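Pilot study result, target chain (179 residues):
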Amino acid sequence: MGSITSSLFISLDGVIESPEKWHFPYFNDEMGAVVGEQMGKADATLLGRQTYDEFASYWPSADPADPITSAMNGARKYVVSSTLDNAEWENSSTVNGDVVAELTRLKADYDLGTTGSATLVRWMLEQGLVDELHLLVHPIVVGSGKKLFADGATVPLRLVSSTTFSTGVLHLVYAPAKA
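Predicted structure:
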């Protein structure tokens, strides 16, 4: 049995948008180990349409000497979208129609991870599809930008673990709360 794990960089005020503008001063070996572990556990990556478009416009032409480039391009990717007909980035395919059924089928056999894709993550949390939510909470108030949580359904979670990095970043791991 596989799982769905969602990992996000997030500011104290809940912003997940444009982490390249605020995240890097906090990146260190501790965070790198967590990010590497999450990437290594996933058999495939789930992406929302917007994140897919951003990644697909960058990674295929990124520096081939960077080992992350080959990892991103070579990895199996599933794009959850009702509007994308053909995912052309290497090893990408679309998930549409009965998305809950398709993701449930995929997670029966694979460990799936998300990167970014806040809208998708929120929706999957509401559907009870996320097995672990990893939040890397940065000690910064960004002030504006897309937030992970907006108005929506109540989703009870339980804290599985918490780690404080030397940079002040908190690595919080949540799982669905048992009813």
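One observation from the pilot: The mean pLDDT is 92. A full batch analysis is planned for the follow-on phase.
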